[in-house]
Amino acid sequence: MQPGTRTTDGRGRLYDSILETVGNTPCVRLNHLPPEHVTVYAKAEFFNPAASVKDRLALNIIEAAERDGRLKPGQTVVEATSGNTGIGLAMACAAKGYPLVVTMAESFSIERRRMMRFLGAKVVLTPRELKGFGMYEKARELAEAHGWFLAHQFESEANADIHEATTGREILADFDGQRLDYFVTGYGTGGTIAGVGRVLRRERPDVNLILSEPSNAQLVASGTAQERTQAHEPAAGHPAFEPHPIQGWTPDFIPWVLQEALDESYVDELLPVAGHAGIEWSRKLAQREGIFTGVSGGATVAAAMEVAERAPTGSVILAMLPDTGERYLSTPLFEDIGADMDASEIEVMESTPGYQMPR
Predict the structure, then answer these.
(1) d(Cα 89, Cα 20) in Å, to the nearest integer?
(2) Is the pTM of this model over 0.90?
(3) What residue ranges of the chain are covered by domains with CATH 3.40.50.1100?
(4) Domain 18-47+169-334 falls in which CATH fold?
(5) 284 catalytic, yes or no?
(6) How does pLDDT run across 40-72, given as a tens digit for each residue?
(7) Is 265 one of the annotated active-site residues of the chain?
(8) Which one of 82, 109, 282, 296 is the catalytic residue?
């Protein structure tokens, strides 16, 4: 072995199921993008087995329903999702033997549908003009008509609970004895900010909690309350919503799970982020840090960098990276990334005589 060769020693355990590998994702320092007077870390949720933060809530919703008897052996699970929760549910349902039906607006990326179907789920598309509320209503309709188990990611207590029990505890452990001044996240269901907020308010109350939402869909910042049913489900789409390119962030209603974070003052500051900034920072993370995350991760880092610019010297910031960039191949994130060689690549090819591609 060469001196200095990197070695690994394994995890010191064997796993009985892929589901046991959910969580314990790393916090990784950004070395080239942040301003010099602060330190920025990113919590890389694409290290989860189905490559997103939603693996956590998907697994806990299923296991909580198993424990209390709401989910029966062999019963079909149904849920409305923009993709990541559906992929996490597809993984969990495949491992546990439950059929899964996902409802999904046709505007979300094609590769997400294909991944869910690859994992054995059925994907029912709803018209894009009905937005997130349309796919939500379709899932509810299917559950009522067929007696299926509706996962209720936007209302389930199991959502924030798993982030309190895992994500928040991981942050405490990783920053034990270390400075941490800001925690930055967007929201899809609100489970991350609610669960982590519980932990940090209790154990690290000095940490500032920053919540981001799309600049053209500022539902929380609007101050307009969400219409809800008695079961805390959205009764209608939110009037402040506009379509935005940050898939996984901010459906067209304020989720009940998020409401806890708002009501309990887990949010110290609300920052809007433009969709193009999410795309820009996702590309910067890939090309300057070697970190491959999606538009939602880029948008979270965009917010973190805004905080970084004005943070006191020595501040430490942690940003959530919800998923992998591979979820976005058919979206604007990759629209400038060609499959064919560009002029600079042709120039490299022609710089030596062998193995020339025909022009």
Answers:
(1) 14
(2) yes
(3) 18-47+169-334, 54-150
(4) Rossmann fold (3.40.50)
(5) no
(6) 999 999 999 999 999 999 999 999 999 999 999
(7) no
(8) 296
